[in-house]
Design goal:
The protein is an alpha/beta fold. Helix content is about 45%, strand content about 15%. Helix 10 runs parallel beside helix 15. The longest helix is centred in the last third of the chain and has 21 residues. It starts with 8 loop residues before the first helix and ends in a 17-residue tail after the last helix. The structure holds 5-amino-5-deoxy-1-O-phosphono-D-mannitol. 5-amino-5-deoxy-1-O-phosphono-D-mannitol binds next to helix 4 and helix 12.
Length: about 375
């Protein structure tokens, strides 16, 4: 738990992510299968019966759930709904048949998530599953099933390695539940398994070139406000990018679904409100490209994070570009998390905020 030469815990935890992911995946996948022995046979019965998933969490863990919902519906062909724990616990909700309740939490002690799980236990769900980084936490003790993320202790208040490990666990869950679902579509299964296997190396490659993220942070220093935009799983990652910037740099930032810009926020665009577009070259790319053009036409400043194909197509509209390796529908959100975290980190260092212990926040929110 020391900083091991890093200036902040957050930086150490960002750079530990290749190892954290490999710990998360260790012993849990072969080249074309997810291994679920650790859950026992009763779990397989539950997974095979699951027709819907309800994910409940707070903050960054909630964003992991939102990303997972895109995967569950596309990869596993399972209906998936995600909700903020503090909302869920106080409202009446309708539970569809054979719904698996999933609570997500780094700490396992978040008061609202714990209360939501306790409410769910007697509410008629098929079963409860907790995705958590802390064994022997209140959440793991209270849930029927538990999927540990094994990311190691996270000390920085801003969640980084716990988030990408939660995503890796969700990827496994989507791939596994899909296997047991008779009506599934065979969505790029081989590509996803292969890219999970290569995840550690790909993350290392991104982190090696982290200088570029520092340059982006410099360019954001005087921004009045900042936007993150994305489509598909990149939309919740845009929310996460905005949360990271807010919590450690204290700068105002909003995450938006790129298609929503024209329904209001486009009015805010001017040259001191930069927009960071998270846009791998995928089925959404041409749509987000036209959003980028709309922003440019209003003198907005665009920072594009994409792969080489995406950057080639869009660079004439962008002020800065960052090239990441090629990804797929599942691994893009995991890999694009790294620039999002590093941009927030470097900007916080430049602005001199308390990176590891931002004002007014606690690592574990055990009260309402
Ligand atoms: O421990 P949890 O994952 O349940 O915590 C939930 C949020 O408080 C947490 O993710 C928070 O949003 C992060 N520290 C933000 O980086």
């Amino acid at each position: 738990t020391d900083k091991q030469g890093y200036r902040h815990y957050m930086m150490k935890e960002i750079f530990f992510q290749p190892d954290a992911i490999s710990k998360t995946l260790k012993g849990r996948i072969t080249k074309d299968q997810v291994i679920t022995k650790e859950f026992g046979e009763s779990a397989d019965l539950i997974f095979s019966k699951t027709e819907c998933i309800k994910i409940v969490a707070c903050g960054t863990s909630y964003h992991a759930g939102l990303i997972a919902a895109y995967w569950m519906e596309k990869v596993a062909n399972i209906h998936c709904q995600v909700e903020i724990a503090s909302e869920y616990r106080y409202r009446k909700s309708v539970i569809l048949d054979n719904t698996l309740f999933v609570a997500v939490s780094q700490s396992g002690e978040t008061a609202d998530t714990l209360a939501a799980l306790r409410t769910a236990k007697d509410a008629g769900y098929l079963s409860t599953l907790v995705i958590c980084n802390v064994d022997e936490s209140s959440l793991t003790r209270d849930s029927a099933l538990c999927f540990l993320t094994h990311a190691g202790t996270e000390i920085g208040v801003a969640s980084t390695k716990a988030f990408t490990s939660q995503l890796a666990v969700f990827a496994l869950l989507a791939l596994h539940i899909k296997k047991n679902n008779m009506q599934n579509i065979d969505y790029a299964k081989d590509t996803i398994f292969q890219s999970l296997f290569e995840m550690q190396q790909t993350m290392r490659r991104i982190l090696k070139n982290s200088k570029k993220f520092e340059e982006v942070a410099h360019s954001l220093r005087d921004a009045k406000s900042i936007f993150y935009i994305g489509r598909g799983p990149m939309y919740p990652l845009a929310l996460e990018g905005a949360l990271k910037l807010k919590e450690i740099t204290y700068k105002h930032c909003e995450g938006y679904a790129a298609g929503e810009l024209k329904h209001g926020p486009l009015a805010l665009i001017e040259d001191d409100i930069p927009v960071i577009a998270l846009a791998p070259y995928d089925e959404n790319f041409l749509k987000i490209l036209s959003n980028i053009q709309e922003i440019k036409a209003r003198n907005g400043k665009i920072i594009l994070i994409s792969d080489s194909k995406g950057v080639d197509k869009a660079k004439k509209y962008c002020d800065q570009t960052i090239v990441l390796p090629n990804t797929n529908f599942v691994t893009s959100a995991i890999l694009y998390s790294l620039p999002v975290q590093l941009i927030a980190y470097h900007l916080a260092v430049l602005l001199g905020t308390d990176v590891d212990q931002p004002r007014n926040l606690a690592k574990s929110v055990t009260v309402e």
